[in-house]
Amino acid sequence: MIVTQLAGKFIFAGEGRHITRIHDWDELIVVLQGELEMFEEDRKFSVRAGEWLLLRRGKKHGGLAPYPANLSFFWLHFMDDGTVISKLPQHGILREPANFSVHIQSFLNEQNRLEPDKKIMELLFLLMVQEMHRPSQDRLKVELATPLAIAAQKYIGTHFNEQLSLESIASELHCNPQYLSRLYRKVFGITLTEELNKRRIARAKWLLAYGSLSIKETAKKCGFNDLAYFRRQFRRYCSMTPNEYRSRHLPGFWNTQ
Fold it and tell me: Strand 72-80 to strand 26-33: parallel, antiparallel, or no bridges (unpaired)?
């Protein structure tokens, strides 16, 4: 059984750090920008953009360092009887952060209605939990993958916002570009270029929904120097323009302290 209480979006504006407290509710934090340094009892966490942290009721938690100037995060208070999030690690990375953002934005919109439907809010929270359960890799593909294919995927995952090409990736991994291309498609079912664009568009969706950059700045931040190409790829993966995607993410409940 799950009971949700309240959620919001924190945007840091000033000096301070997360207060030290023992809360009566469980809390989920998902960082949008910056890095949040927290502790719970004797455990320490550094939570970066696209990562989540679960804080349990009855345990002392608080900030380890002052908030960075660019910090923003979602927070949600809930109560779980142990059946919903018991199998989740306390700190994790979202495989599809844009999917999660759709669910929590819908939660905030429902919360802000004059008569919010608690059942809908609980169902939306369960969808968020499912996104948190989503594996970081497809297990079967990982079992079949060669070390070279995995190395290529990891390299793209950490360098996708740079000017990459098949040749530059192959050079970094000391292998033949054509061989790497064939191997990657055989293992993961998509080309290296498709993997690269998929990673870039996922990051762009996150920035468009919760950042303040222009469309052109967002494209460049994600590794697209050609704005027209970015718009084509965004429509291909999202079936809408970047502007249309941004307009669908209305602000929910924000706090700055």
Answer: antiparallel
